[in-house]
Amino acid sequence: MIEVMEKVNQFISGAKRVLVISRKPTMTEYTTMAKVTGLGILVISILAYLVYLFFAFTGL
User: Where are the beta strands (DSSP E) in the chain?
Assistant: First the structure.
């Protein structure tokens, strides 16, 4: 039981450290992240559609 409490305390102290260091992203950082995320979603959806077309035309 003591080991569990020690691990919980370590996690809480690590989480506090991250919150102290973190900051709100700038508008440039936010737009860059949004563009990269949107591009990733677009690429994955195109790949999924191509796989769908492959199986639809081959009948597998």
Answer: none
Task: Show the CA angle centred on residue 58, arms to residues 55 and 60, nearest 5°.
Answer: 60
**Collapsing DSSP states into helix, strand and coil, what is residue 57?**
helix
Answer whether residue 2 shows pLDDT above 90.
no
- For residue 60, the enclosing domain spans 28-60
Cβ(33)–Cβ(25) below 8 Å: yes
Number of structural domains the chain divides into: 1
- The answer as to whether 17 is a domain residue is no
Q: Is residue 22 part of a domain?
A: no
Which one-letter DSSP state was computed for residue 3?
Answer: H
Q: List, for residues 7-53, the tens digit of each pLDDT value.
A: 999 999 999 999 999 999 999 999 999 999 999 999 999 999 999 99
Confirm whether 42 is domain-assigned. Answer: yes
